[in-house]
Amino acid sequence: MPDAAADPLIVAISSRTLFDMEDSHALFEREGLDAYADFQRSHEDDLLAPGVAFPLVRKLLGLNEGAPPEAPRVEVILISRNSADTGLRIFNSIEHHGLSIKRAAFSNGAPPYPYIKPFGSDLFLSAHAEDVRAALAAGVAAATLLPSRAPQHRHDQLRIAFDGDAVIFGDEGERVSREGGLAAFAAYERANAGQPLSGGPFRGFLDALHRLQTVFPMGENAPIRTALVTARSVPAHERVIRTLREWGIRLDEALFLGGRAKGPFLEAFGADIFFDDSEHNIVSARDHVAAGHVPHGVANPR
């Protein structure tokens, strides 16, 4: 059995996704950095409300129960464009909520993404789209979360859902579909059913998450549950199944929706977060669950 404590899952997260900071961010947009800094210093004892990624972070850190403090299974790192001075309010809120976040990088307005890879991050979540794109370009799984208040609690399990093409897998299927239509895509997938798909930007994160899952018992009561939620349908399902088998990756559930809207299915699954490269799918999902846009592949030209 792999020793996940020796190689923890590391998630880097921005302050605007961890906490609801939209009032102060609006002040920054309206009046500038000095007004923002003055506001944060004068309110540093006022606790911040949980943001869109707060439930995810709490569940991730909860996976450390029973692990030695010096060797956690999961580590969450704060990556912030605040200065250390204006970030004091953030750490006061972290302490109040009992979140075991010990490491942080405050870039004082500069792009913070250069620090993501040295921390060994498997995943980066941010409200700043350019930082997300830069992290993806550096080979780190990353997604943009639009800030909002924390979503409602549905399950004690950590539940993570992924789109397939251009997220877990490469975007070759989407390219064929866009160039030749659905009939060409179906023919291409049938012809290549025995050939594993290439890995997408979230393959490394999925590997790390799967490694962490192996520490815990399998079954419905396991603390982590994963799902593939894809627009693919029969016969394009076969290549997905064979690819995951080739990689040695277990996904607990797989939904082949054939183009149906994903939002209601994600709500039924109870996802704490869903990752998709399509902004259209993210719009559908955000009405139901926290959703991270992965700006990768043919659907996201620069």
TrEMBL record:
<dbReference type="GO" id="GO:0000287">
    <property type="term" value="F:magnesium ion binding"/>
</dbReference>
<dbReference type="GO" id="GO:0000166">
    <property type="term" value="F:nucleotide binding"/>
</dbReference>
<dbReference type="InterPro" id="IPR010394">
    <property type="entry name" value="5-nucleotidase"/>
</dbReference>
<dbReference type="GO" id="GO:0009117">
    <property type="term" value="P:nucleotide metabolic process"/>
</dbReference>
<dbReference type="GO" id="GO:0008253">
    <property type="term" value="F:5'-nucleotidase activity"/>
</dbReference>
<dbReference type="Pfam" id="PF06189">
    <property type="entry name" value="5-nucleotidase"/>
</dbReference>
<dbReference type="GO" id="GO:0005737">
    <property type="term" value="C:cytoplasm"/>
</dbReference>
<protein>
    <submittedName>
        <fullName>5'-nucleotidase</fullName>
    </submittedName>
</protein>
